[in-house]
């Protein structure tokens, strides 16, 4: 049963790694990284319950806070970049060529 | 581990797996962020319900702390991601977009 849970976690993490590699926008990569971190947190929790020790469990709190910080920083970066690109496209429409995949 | 805990943990991991399948299969960025951002804190809460009886008082306290941190912070991050997609990728706008119409109205009001 525990082995089944770990196998499902590995499959979920591989799916989010596929989305990190292939995602067309930056937001897809950020949310896929978040899902991979959450599966890592679940793996640490299940392993602690399986061994019956709480020694490494503070790692889960640390990973949660670091993941939030990374999400906020990267989404602010994406928002500022998109705003600048639209501002340039608004200023001179004939020469602007947006639509490059980031 | 006790069998009830094992079943609850497997249910939680199944929710994470459903979120990953949604992240792989859905078509637009809004749908993908919706699938992964809504399901993952629920999955972690279900895993915590299964794990807490096995790890004693100290581990249970740390698990509750992690759940509180996740439930407070993850919706904020997902909201910022939706906003970033709305600002940076106008080609993915849905059919009915009231935020875009309202921001255009406020821009034209500030221009005059």
How would you summarize this macromolecular structure in one to three sentences?
The complex is a heterodimer of chains A (102) and B (112). By secondary structure, chain A is mainly alpha-helical.
Give the key terms.
heterodimer, A: 102 residues, mainly alpha, 79% helix, 0% strand, elongated, B: 112 residues, 4 helices
What do these coordinates show?
The complex is a heterodimer of chains A (102) and B (112). By secondary structure, chain A is mainly alpha-helical. In chain A, helix 1 packs antiparallel against helix 2 and helix 2 packs antiparallel against helix 3. Chain A is elongated and about 60 Å long. The mean pLDDT of chain A is 84. By secondary structure, chain B is mostly helical.
Structural class of chain B: mainly alpha
Strand percentage of chain B = under 5%
Q: List segments of chain B where confidence is low: pLDDT < 50 over at least 5 consecutive residues.
A: none
Tally of strands of chain B? 0
Helix content of chain B: over 70%
The major pleated sheet of chain B works out as:
none
Identify the biggest protein-protein contact and residues per side.
A-B, 56 and 57 residues
* Outline type of chain B: elongated
Helical percentage of chain A: over 70%
Poorly predicted tracts of residues of chain A: none
Oligomer: heterodimer
Enumerate how many helices of chain B there are, as a single number: 4
Q: What is the residue-averaged pLDDT of chain B? A: 87
Which helices and strands appear, and what pairs or packs with what?
The complex is a heterodimer of chains A (102) and B (112).
Chain A: H1 2-22, H2 26-51, H3 58-91
Helix pairs in contact in A: 1-2, 2-3
Chain B: H1 3-25, H2 29-51, H3 56-88, H4 98-111
Helix pairs in contact in B: 1-2, 2-3
């Amino acid at each position: 049963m525990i082995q089944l849970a770990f196998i499902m976690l590995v499959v979920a993490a591989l799916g989010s790694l596929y989305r990190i590699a292939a995602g067309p926008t930056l937001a897809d990569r950020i949310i896929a990284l978040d899902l991979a971190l959450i599966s890592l947190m679940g793996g640490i929790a299940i392993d602690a319950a399986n061994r019956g020790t709480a020694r490494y469990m503070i790692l889960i709190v640390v990973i949660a806070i670091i993941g939030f910080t990374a999400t906020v920083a990267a989404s602010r970066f994406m928002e500022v970049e998109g705003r600048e690109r639209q501002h340039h496209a608004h200023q001179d429409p004939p020469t602007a060529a947006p639509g490059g995949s980031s | 581990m006790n069998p009830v805990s094992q079943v609850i943990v497997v249910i939680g991991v199944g929710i994470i797996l459903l979120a990953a399948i949604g992240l792989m299969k859905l078509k637009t960025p809004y749908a993908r962020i919706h699938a992964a951002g809504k399901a993952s804190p629920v999955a972690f809460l279900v895993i915590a319900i299964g794990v807490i009886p096995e790890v004693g008082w100290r581990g249970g306290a740390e698990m509750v702390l992690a759940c509180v941190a996740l439930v407070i912070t993850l919706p904020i991050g997902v909201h910022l991601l939706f906003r970033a997609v709305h600002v940076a990728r106008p080609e993915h706008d849905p059919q009915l977009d009231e935020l875009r119409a309202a921001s255009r109205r406020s821009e034209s009001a500030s221009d005059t």
